[in-house]
Design goal:
four-stranded antiparallel beta sheet; alpha+beta; Muramoyl-pentapeptide Carboxypeptidase, domain 2; two-stranded antiparallel ribbon
């Protein structure tokens, strides 16, 4: 298969798309629901002149085959945005001595109920809560996340696909196996120091207890799916509850 080529025009357009969506998230502040927008909802953020180019960009990049870049996970499908997402708010952590408010997160109902029970058990055991830094993302928003990291990685597709799954392949887009990216009250794991999470008491507790609540770590070290080690990424599957 021929390598997917990113033209300079695409790079400029991707950078513009990222800037406009980031600006919309800032405009909405802590009420932002951009992560739940379907494709039409996301396209509506652009002007009539911009929209045809943006739609063509999304359609073009949706055709990237992650299997050609070492991804070995399964295709989960493009699933419509659920109508019963639960909104999680008022999460606050401390990073470098400063309080940080985590933006609202949207979670499939079954995964949310299981998370609440697991969080209560963790707080009883450790006296510390477990926060959710990223939960549900629509397939459209997942493409924005891909564009965001492409820009961060100087448009290196192979490097980006080690970190970000394509829409339709991401557990964040798939409510039947809802992914939660977790962090503790001290801010582990943030993008700045993601791997320190596996040094925390919360991580150790999860490795010993998360299965009782239906959660598993999706991408352990040397996982067969071609995704980098993500100790913060746990997915919920009600069929695994003991």
């Amino acid at each position: 298969m021929s390598p997917f080529i990113i033209a300079d025009f695409d790079k400029n357009l991707i950078a513009s798309v990222v800037d406009i969506i980031e600006a919309e998230k800032t405009r909405q502040g802590n009420a932002s629901r951009v992560a739940t927008y379907d494709f039409d909802g996301l396209y509506a953020l652009f002007s009539e002149e911009q929209r045809p180019s943006v739609e063509a960009l999304f359609e073009k990049y949706m055709k990237i085959d992650p299997l050609a870049y070492g991804f070995k996970g399964e295709y989960l499908g493009i699933v419509p945005v659920p109508a019963d997402l639960v909104t999680l708010t008022d999460q606050k952590c401390i990073i470098a001595g400063n309080e940080k408010i985590i933006p609202p997160q949207f979670i499939a109902r079954d995964a949310y109920d299981a998370y609440v029970k697991m969080n209560e058990a963790m707080q009883a055991a450790l006296g510390r809560p477990l926060f959710i830094e990223s939960a549900y993302r629509s397939p459209a928003y997942q493409m924005f996340v891909l564009f965001y990291y492409l820009k961060q990685n100087d448009f290196d597709i192979a490097k980006t696909l080690k970190r970000v799954a394509m829409p339709g392949y991401s557990e964040h887009n798939y409510p039947p196996k809802q992914a939660l990216d977790v962090m503790n009250v001290d801010g582990s794991s943030t993008d700045e120091e993601p791997f320190k999470f596996d040094e925390t008491a919360e991580y150790q507790w999860l490795t010993e207890n998360a299965g009782r609540f239906g959660f598993t770590m999706s991408y352990p070290k040397d996982n067969p799916k071609g995704i980098m080690y993500e100790p913060w990424h746990w997915s919920f599957d009600s069929r695994t509850v003991l």
